[in-house]
Amino acid sequence: MTIQTVTLSQLVPPPANPRKRIDEAALAGLAASIQTDGLLQNLVVRKKGRKFEIISGARRFRALSLLNERGDWPKDAPIPVEVRTGLSDEDTVRLATVENIQREALPPLDEAEAFARLLALGASLEDVAAKAGVSVLTVKRRLALASLCDEAKEQVRAGDMSLGCAEALTLGTSDQQRAVLERLAGQNWEAEPETIRDMLAGEKPSRAEAIFPPEAYTGTVTTDLFADEADTLFDDVEQFLRLQEEAVAALVAKHEAEGRWAEIIRAPYAQWWQFKEAGEGDAAGVVIHMTPTGRVEVRENLAKRPVRPDVVEATRAPAKPKVQAEYVAPVVRNLSAHKSLAVMAALLDNPRKAREIAVVQMLNASDWTGRVTLDPHPALAAFEEEEAPATFQRIEAECAAFAAPFRAMEKGYSRAARWCWEWLPAQAKDPAKVYEAVKAMPDAELGRLHTLLTVLTFGQGSLDTLDRGRSLFNAVAGDLGIDMRRHWRPDEAFLSKRRKDQLVEIAKESGASIRMGALKDYSKATLVEALVKHFERTKTAPDEAPDYDLKGRDWLPGAMLFPAVTAEGPVEETPPWEDLPEADEEPGEDADDIEDEAMEPEGETAFEHAA
Hints:
Layout: E1 2-6, E2 11-12, H1 24-37, E3 43-48, E4 51-56, H2 58-70, E5 79-84, H3 89-103, H4 108-120, H5 125-132, H6 136-146, H7 150-157, H8 163-169, H9 174-185, H10 193-201, E6 221-222, E7 233-234, H11 237-257, E8 261-266, E9 275-277, E10 285-290, E11 296-304, H12 309-314, H13 329-347, H14 351-362, H15 390-406, H16 420-426, H17 431-439, H18 443-457, H19 472-480, H20 492-495, H21 500-509, H22 513-516, H23 524-538, H24 547-554, H25 591-598, H26 606-610
Parallel strand pairs: 2-4, 3-5, 8-10
Antiparallel strand pairs: 1-5, 3-4, 6-7, 9-11, 10-11
């Protein structure tokens, strides 16, 4: 390793870069930083004939080229470089990948391919996790994305699909993924990960998916006379799976008899990055991927990469599919937000309890997500203006009362905020002016503000799950005597997301069936309409009203209790925080977290360069 100077014309960019997209605005900022302060970090290169191929510093090279095009950097100006010798092409790829990961987190899909590249060169999961500064579990999650079909990867990189949806797509074969993308392309709504999982796992197998002779199946089928064989479904799923297994075994025997190795992967998705197209001198074979639902994908003429056996085992996808939840994700989030806002509004009337919560949170004891830095609870952002409940309006009005005096104390750039609850804790303010104003507050007003700021941070630990355990949130709600009947009524938004069989049970439990007659004659849409009217009519029913009206007035789903009660069984004995990932892993790394991650800026910023 030596240090020398070269000119811009002597440098050539790397043949491959782990970072697939370059932020042009960030590149311009980096160029401006170099023009002002010079190149503060050497490029790492290797000799390539009379030229020097860049291993690390491709963005700095692009920034220098941009300055040269503008006439701000002479072609013969000296550029310090660190020359590495004795590097193979694989060493170069490894160094470039690690450098990109360590400098700034790659976009998740690029990170997935970078992790796969390192592991395919023989690295261990622990080594990759340590170099990337993430947990082993995060590496495993990323690797699932590396086997997505090209069409899905393009949509993720273009920002047309969230990473939550991309993760859900990994449950299907490449052909299934493309089929799902085609179905979604014709929709005018944004798909949820749960919707994609249902599309991949919630259907009966079709005749087009069978790799056994059709005459071998002796069960009944469901057929659409006006459709093709893809819409002819096997009713006997157990027989279909048995026949698929027999056909897969025969396929393995055939390839092995012809002198090729054959490997079966029984999992929701296959780690295709562990294989490559067989070249000269490689032992060619076939990989048969069979999903838990019996769908089969066969790829021939493959060779195995030198992946460590422990990595192969550790990254194997679980074969057992997840059990379908009682409530879909949008319903869980909506109900959880309603419950959180009800508790928050009640806390406004109980300063003592609010201060108790403040002390608990300041001691770093909270459900799942601590918000002691005044991160407003996401329940506040869960509703549009036209559907905001009275609990939200109560909290916003209290924030508006305190926001006005502090408006004149803004410091620096004013943060755009639609609501006072957003602006009050987030906008930077002149500390001296705020301190003087707070000192002048009477005790009662100061206590009221302290209560409000505490309230803004407190709610259910996560809106994306039903809280059925011994949580702080449920304990506080119990002490406050929260009755969700006073804050929430079953409306069209809730009812329309229930299945028809669930709506029938709601009609019976709430007394609506007495007036509705034969429920089997109702479609789902008419059931929803009738139930909305029933709950609206009975919400103010007096105590002397008929029993069926009182049932409508008092009906509440178990999910709205503290703790929530669902059909999934008894409450787990293990507190939820004991099942959380380790501290070096992002908790709940699903649709929301991953989307936030995908929005993070890419590449080396001008600030990082100057540092």
